[in-house]
Each structure stands twice: as C-alpha cells, then as structure tokens.
Specification:
mainly alpha
Length: 232
C-alpha cells in the first residue's frame, strides 16, 4: 500500500504542476532571493504541504479505523474503487462534485480568503506556512489520496499513506519551483489532463485490494495485505 501512495503522488503531481504551478512558483521564487534561498524556500513549501496532508491522513485514517471495527473495510475499498472508476467512465469532475456541497464550499471560501491574504503579504510568511495553507485547497488528486487513507483503516496507516503521497508529489513540484523553465505554461496545461487516468488506475487498485485481500477478523490488517489471498 505504501508504494501505491508514493506512486499516486509521483504521477499525480503532473496534475499539480498544471493546476498549482503558478501559485507554487510565486511562493517559492521571491524577489531578491539567491538561488540557494529559492531552493530552501521550495523545499520548505513542499514539506509544508506534506505536513498538512499527513494531518489530513490522521483524520481520515481515524475515521477508517471505525469502519474496520464495523467489519466493512473490504466493502469500503470496493465501493470507493467503483466510484472512482465510474467517475472516469462518466467523465465526472471530482473537484466540482465535492465542492458543490455547501459546507465544503464555505470551508474552501474561508481557506481561499486566508490564502489570498497570505499571498498579498507572502514576504511576511515562511514558505513552510504557505505550503501548509496550500495543502488545504480543493484538489481532486488529494481527494483520491484521502480515499486511500480512509481505506487503510488505521490512524497510523492514514498518516503514513498521506505522508508518502506528499513526498511523492515533492520531486515534480520541487523541480517546478527551482527550475521554472523545465515546465513552460503550454506543457503545464497538458499535464492537467492526467488526473482522470490516475483516478481510473487508483480506482482499479482499490477494487483489486478489496477483492483479493483477505481481511482478518482481528486487527492484523497489514499482514493480510502483505500476503493476499487470491481468488481462483
């Protein structure tokens, strides 16, 4: 499961480059900074995002742990996977679908307002803080990762899953913020189209996991994951 989290972040970060690229560049390339200072800013910013993802993993992993006690984890993994595959087949925009909820809209309105104020005075904030705030912005890729954190069924598992997901996004976004010329705007625009295919692959993985992994009656989940019982 851990390698899946990192891979999801690594390949999904192409989507991040397309969607969040200008914001990340603005936060990490400050006027008057030397190249080494910009590198430090980029590292701090991306670690800040990862810290927020890890805290979100704690929350969703805890929720998932209650589902384990209810003996519903296999069903949850399959249901989440089916929903993701259907969103691909029906061309459903995950961002728009989730963000239409009134509570979610109010939450993100507050986050955007705070982040906008931080952007206007970005010189007053450490890049790590800016990265943590950015980690709360609506993002279909993060929603996919949170589904994985929920499916781990444990608080620690959810935290580790999201931490590895965040670290998986780091190489591409670090390259973006330290070498802007590597990703011209036209290329970044093309990267935005990758998310549906990442959604499909991750959905299929969750279905596979729910079908072939023999969920134990005791909370010894990771042993079962390492030694899956295959259908014949």
């Amino acid at each position: 499961m851990w390698y899946v989290a990192f891979t999801l972040g690594l390949f999904g970060s192409l989507h991040c480059v397309g969607m969040c690229g200008p914001l990340a560049i603005a936060f990490c390339n400050r006027e008057g900074n030397s190249s080494s200072q910009n590198i430090q800013s980029a590292l701090s910013y991306n670690l800040g995002r990862t810290a927020t993802y890890t805290l979100l993993g704690l929350l969703f992993g805890t929720v998932g742990s209650f589902i384990v006690f209810a003996d519903m984890q296999k069903g949850l993994s399959i249901v989440l996977g089916v929903l993701l595959v259907l969103s691909f087949l029906l061309s459903i925009d995950i961002d728009k679908s989730i963000n239409t909820n009134s509570l979610v809209k109010r939450f993100y309105f507050t986050v955007r307002s705070k982040l906008s104020a931080m952007m206007q005075r970005s010189q007053d904030y450490h890049p790590f803080s800016l990265g943590m705030a950015n980690g709360l912005l609506p993002c279909g890729l993060v929603y996919l990762a949170l589904a994985g954190a929920l499916a781990t069924g444990s608080t620690g598992g959810g935290m580790i899953f999201m931490a590895l997901f965040g670290l998986g996004t780091l190489p591409m976004l670090f390259a973006l913020t330290t070498g802007v010329g590597l990703f011209p705007p036209t290329l970044r625009a093309k990267f935005r189209t990758i998310l549906p295919y990442v959604t499909l692959c991750f959905g299929l993985f969750l279905i596979y996991r729910g079908v072939v992994v023999d969920m134990p009656t005791e909370l010894n989940f990771w042993d079962a994951l390492r030694n899956p019982v295959l259908c014949h």
